[in-house]
Amino acid sequence: MRTFKWKRFVSVMLVGLCCGSAARAMAFVDDDGKDKPPTGPTARIEAPAPLTERERRLLDRVEQLEKRVADLEEKAQPAAAVSSSTPAGSDSSAASTASPIAGPTSVASVTAPDRESLGITKTGTVAGVSPEKSASGTAKTEKAQPFAFADFTWLNGNPRTKEVPLDTKFFTPEIRADVDYVYDFAHPKDDTIGGSSEIFRSNEVHVTQLGVGGDFHYDNVRARVMTQFGLYSETTPRNDASPARGQWNLADAYRYLSEAYGGYHFNVMHGINVDAGIFMSYVGLFSYYQFDNWAYQPSYVSSNTPWFFNGVRVQIFPSEHLKIEPWFVNGWQSYGRFDNRPGIGMQILWRPIGWLSVLGNQYMLGEDALNTPGRVRYHTDDSIQIKYYDNPERFLDKAAFSLTGDMGCEHGGGVSCAGNSAKGPKQSFLGYMLYNRLWFDNDRYGLTIGGGQINNPGRYLVLLPPINGATAASGTPYFTENPGDPYKAWDISGTFDWMPSQYITFRWEYNHRAANVPYFSGSGGVTPPGGNQGTAGSFVCLSGFTACNGSPTNTWFPDLRKTENRATIAILVKF
Fold first, then answer.
1. CA distances, 246 to each of 99, 145, 238, 339, 469 (Å)
2. DSSP string of 431-471?
């Protein structure tokens, strides 16, 4: 840094001047006018020669320069806190070693899950919060910002952007665009893809999500809004059955919002945030926004679990390494309540060092089966991510993996957690997913291989295929979700990314998915001839039949297959 070199130059000058003055003052001069070292018994008591006028002026000038250097250092300190962050995608201590241990970086590189929830601005201060002052009016020493001690942009589910071009003291803007083209090897004639919360149509170019918003922060008050235009505004509400209960259409009210909340930041411990509204859940590790993820289509553990909650959260940061976040929410990814009881939950995020992140999400007590009071849901979602290689000097400069495991069940209302019994058939969820990520050429390229597996008897978390316009509220007789209905599935994917800038990703991906029952769209598609007919929760009769009742001779049936193969090309942008 310029300030460091200037300081070093001035320091050398100071030492030289002071040493020269001292030597001149202590020297003895002989009759020839030449300096010589003191000798004889009187050497110890000889007084130094008085300073000349020129030497006094030089010492005065040195004092002025020292004061000037101190002033420059004080003014340069805030800028240094931002510009001294490590290079994109690398830890400061990893430049000369392949060790995964991360060194300290600036707050500017913090990208913890929902970074805005930490209330940190680009300059490293809590958003909208002035430094605390003592009774005398002097500023207290600020506590370390949460997760600011290392660069966590390598994490799956975190954006890799480190700079916000138009960040201000009051508002931090955010713009996202997700546009894709999907090639389905089954060639469904209606171009409809089912069983995914990220991909919905094939052989067409589509805007999956366009989001405009950002974070407001001033005087400890916080707010965030992020819009969702494109397919997400249609598909996300259709996967929520809660609007079917009661009046006022909640699906329309929230359709174009992915995040919307307000709250307050308390200067307690390392910070406490209290927010109310719609916020991201991060159950299943992957982010709702594809730009933040290692892969475009996540495995079932992520794709079938909540992307958002509607309620209240309290984020508690006991230290810079730990976040404890209780939730009080309407239900399991729901705008409203399904029955008579809301849900509660908690997230614990622990990052003791720069190459390790441990995340736990717990959910319980919600009655999340529509029109089935007394059926209570429990779920645990736990992830670990490890960066096991980091050497920016090599072409292969970074490597990391993530492992996620989920377990859950429902009991009451005719089902049982413990297994088939007098209380009802087993209703449970068990799954995992594993991904390995490699970065090349200073994080310009990325390669991810991964996949997972689930077993969900009762199918209460399986995404309903959109047959004849079916929604989570309507259900469909063509793919039942009754207690005890079996569902086992697995998948594998390969993803290649080109990232010429921190703000854009060009992504190519191949997916293979399989299930033990017909589930994925085949060539015949899942839409009746001529478009959707009748109500979504009924059979569609063939032409010439007024009643079909599920009879194979009278009824139209969707073309569902046990396997699916897809290729995806996407352009992902985030500012």
1. 57, 44, 16, 10, 21
2. EEEEEEEEEETTTTEEEEEEEEEEE-TT-SSSPPP-GGG--
The band of 141, judged by pLDDT with boundaries at 50, 70 and 90, is: low
Residues 6 or more apart whose CB falls under 8 angstroms from that of 377 comprise 332, 343, 363, 364, 365, 366, 367, 368, 369, 408, 409, 410, 460
| 186: three-class secondary structure by DSSP | coil
Residue 215: phi and psi, rounded to 5, are -115, 130
Say yes or no to pLDDT of 237 above 50: yes
Longest CA pairwise span in the chain (Å): 132
With a CB cutoff of 8 Å and minimum separation 6, the contacts of 445 are 439, 496, 497, 498, 499
Instruction: Please provide the DSSP assignment of 71-139 as one string.
Output: HHHHHHHHHHHHHTSPPTT--GGGSS----------GGG---TTGGGGTB-TTSSBTT-PPPB-TTSPB
- Which SS3 state, helix, strand or coil, does residue 48 take? coil
Where b means 16+ CB within 10 Å and e means fewer, 493-509 reads bebebebeebbebebeb
| Phi, psi for 497 (deg, rounded to 5) | -120, 140
Residue 119, phi-psi category: left (phi > 0), alpha (psi -120 to 50), beta (remainder) = left
Structure tokens at 510: 């191949």
State both tokens at 73.
């250092």
User: Over the stretch 177-227, which tens digit does the pLDDT of each residue have?
Assistant: 999 999 999 999 999 999 999 999 999 999 999 999 999 999 999 999 999
Ranking 23-27, 406-410, 519-523 by mean pLDDT, the lowest is: 23-27
Helix (H) and strand (E) counts in the chain:
5, 22
Classify 70 as helix, strand or coil: helix
Name the pTM for this structure: 0.76
* Gap between the Cα atoms of 212 and 175, Å rounded: 5
Contact indicator for 461, 303 with CB cutoff of 8 Å: no
- In 3-state terms, the chain is what percent helix, strand and coil (to 5)? 15, 35, 45
